[in-house]
What does this fold into?
Amino acid sequence: MSYNILGINPGHNGSACLVADGELVYYVEEERLSRLKYDGNPFKAMIDIMHRYPVDELVIVGTHPDHPILGWTGEDIFTGLVRKYNPNVKTTILGHEHHLTHAACAFYNSGFRKAVAIVIDGAGTYKDISMNEEGSVKAKGCETESVWTCEYPANFSVLHKVFGDNFQNRMVNDKFDVGNSVTIVKAYEAVTNYLGFSFLEAGKTMGLSSYGKDNPEIPQLFKDNRASKDIFIPEYPRGAYIDDQSNSIFKRNRDPKNFHRNFNEVLDIEKDLAYKIQQETQEKVGDLIEQAINVSKINQVVLAGGYGLNCVANYYLQKRFPNVEIYCEPISHDGGTAIGGAKLTWHGNNNDNTVRKQTSLYYGPKYHPEQIRQALTQVENKFNTYEGNPKAVAELLSENNIVAMYQGSSEAGPRALGNRSILYNPTDPNGKDFVNQVKGREWFRPFAGTVLEENANEWFDFAGMEGSPFMMYAVDVLPEKQNQIQAITHVDGTCRIQTVNKQQNENYYNVINEFKNITGVPIVFNTSFNLAGDPLVETIYDALDALERSDIKYLYLPELKLILEKK
It folds into this structure.
């Protein structure tokens, strides 16, 4: 019998995972089951796991020391829930360890035996910090950036940490010259908020940034290696906001609190501001990595925290450090802390030195083919059903049809990798606008692509990387290929790309290979199977619902060898 650890993250991107003897075997985010975006109460996720696996230990990863909520029994409500399944369950609460669990998730998934971890996050653990050298003045601060050395089995030492608070940023190690004002993610969130997005929608700012340029009217956002307080007003724990009262260039723009703005009217100055924050933050992260390598003398780096999902920055870092091994964690948002906490607990308690490199992200729920057939009987009057195979799907794509693909276990993290994906023809010059309209997305947001691994270097510049199986990089499309795949080539000539081989996802590989046979292009347009504002579909019922509410006409079910067509 294995020893099973249920790890949970109660907070935005709430999640639950099952680690059996150190091996990740299951992961699901609460929003996928509750259908509430960013849902932070992982009760459905916990129950889903406990219906499938026995649980010996519960690891709760919080941002506050007292994070777990006490129920009427006097114990936290999460333990109380698990005790319904196992009365003798052991509970471990990592209430001070938010950034540590980010680092642990990336390190244990990287395949490195030793590494330096860079955690760039919006806000981590809230705790009392000293505001003067005597420690007589206290404030509530939250960790925003941290650097760790990591080594098996569970040796994590902090080299550097920045705490944000209402007065300033406090640094824990003066070997790092990074400044002490608004931090990387908080500055990025401030710009994101100013542009009219929520702070969890930084990916939209990243997409818009490619439309901007270096504008001399916009002041340098980071002065003397720190975010300028002439532009950003620190407001912890919420973070920071742009000073639109004293800065004339920002004052003349719209009300930043108007979240229901018309994004068909994006000002040039807003595009340039997005460009500015993208350029300056990725450079600052690069500076932090450079210092971390110099201080630690370790040439293997893992990147975690919310900023780790910035695929533009990740590619910049790969090009800036060609001789450094960098692993960008694909579950680097807060959902991944559940994995980090569970693995840290296992390796620490069992002195386990086993290295387990992340090779797949298909860890979510899976519907049995008969369950899918049963679901289809409830909607058979709404769809025509045809025998389906990869060639038939490729033919539909070549004729500029949108085809949703649903199969197997769902992907862990925010990227669709062929199991919960919407596919389209990447050669259609109007493809980006067309699919954005169908999904209800803003016009400036780019789309990803999936390329056959063996053909990847014929179309993209991977800057020395072996591939991109988890879609973590926006890489350069080779100049001579850009006009051939306009639907997935962003305005800056890049594409967020996934590489795939037959071993990773055979059904998906076969579709792309058949598309190649028809068109000569070994690539398909790939976006997440969801509509604007919705989480990725999880169940077959979610998939059918998304089809009914959209103009997506076809659904491919490879396990049943079926194609559904809306009547």
Q: What stands out?
A: The chain has a mean pLDDT of 90. The CA atoms of residues 467 and 499 lie 6 Å apart. The chain is about 30% helix and 25% strand.
